[in-house]
Amino acid sequence: MKKVFAVLASMGIAASLIPTAVMAEEASYTVGICQLVQHEALDAATQGFKDALTEELGDAVTFDEQNAQGDSNTCSTIINSFVSADVDLILANATAALQAAAAGTSEIPLLGTAVTEYGVALDIADFDGTVGGNISGTSDLAPLDGQAEMIQELFPDAETIGLLYCSAEANSQYQVDTVRGYLEEMGYTCQDYSFSDSNDLASIVTTAASSCDVIYVPTDNTAASNTEIINNVCLPAGVPIVAGEEGICEGCGVATLSIDYYELGYATGEMAVRILRDGEDISEMPIEYAPTFTKKYNADICQELGVEVPDDYVAIGAEEEAAEGETETATEETAETETEAAE
């Protein structure tokens, strides 16, 4: 943290003589951001995080933003560079980034985001909601029972549900295990289809599509980065996909019960402000969760597969289009008012 203390000491001036407000104004912070991979959900979380910090701290905060391009080893390299640079706080975006950061430092405050289950990610037995130490953050866990109910609501006559996920992602395994329990209670037969990385994804998806009535894809970073591969197999085969989050659904799914990743990242940024500016103790900060969840559907894929959704589902992109329309209307009204005033 680059503060005035060192300068004051060299000048022989006691810090106690400087007003607190002045010291706060002159404080500056460097925040390292390690994002596992580039895709819509994680990008939105990072942007929300940065916006929250910038709105509160302005030019006093500087970001060192790096992307590991899906490689967990690169996450470790990035974290080590942050530790060497002695950044003031680290954002670990996605589970692999969080695991690398937890292994890389026990001193620098570390916030995770887009991490589904911290107890699973950090191998904490009897996790009670607070990690402790130098770690806290936000979770992107959506109600898994609600996602199972969505499958039942949309596909009550289906018999076999394929559970498609990356075996290298511990949080994906957790979601699949949990959803399987709900689906089997509903009478469905579930079959796991795990892939180790994107190289074997197409062959695994092809096998799943030939054997299942519906496929469930949890919040999974590898799947999110390769929705085109999944869609190119499942759409021609006529097999619908229910997804764990909106980005996957937009790329290859019919429906999802999802959070807003921008809002999740923004909430993480607010936590960072409380740590950096307000001095809140991160060891006592519990993991925070998204406050709202929305049933959304992919209108194009639903139409092509003949899937009808209830009225309480929102088309992906509809909220953004409505907001843009309101902005355009307001701009036009302002212009008309200015024209009338000039006349």
Describe the structure.
Residues 317-343 are annotated as: Disordered. Pfam families: ABC_sub_bind. It comes from Candidatus Limivivens intestinipullorum. Residues 318-343 have a biased composition (Acidic residues). InterPro entries: ABC_transpt-TYRBP-like, Peripla_BP_I. By secondary structure, the chain is α/β, with parallel strands linked by helices. It is built from 15 helices and 13 strands. The chain has helices at residues 5-11, 20-26, 40-57, 72-85, 95-104, 118-121, 144-154, 170-185, 201-211, 221-224, 227-237, 246-252, 261-276, 299-305, 318-342, and strands at 29-35, 61-67, 89-93, 110-115, 135-139, 160-166, 189-195, 214-217, 241-243, 255-258, 288-289, 294-297, 314-315. The chain has a seven-stranded mixed β-sheet, sandwiched between helices. Strand 1, helix 3 and strand 2 form a beta-alpha-beta unit. Helix 4 (72-85) packs across helix 5 and helix 7 (144-154) packs across helix 8 (170-185). The termini are far apart.
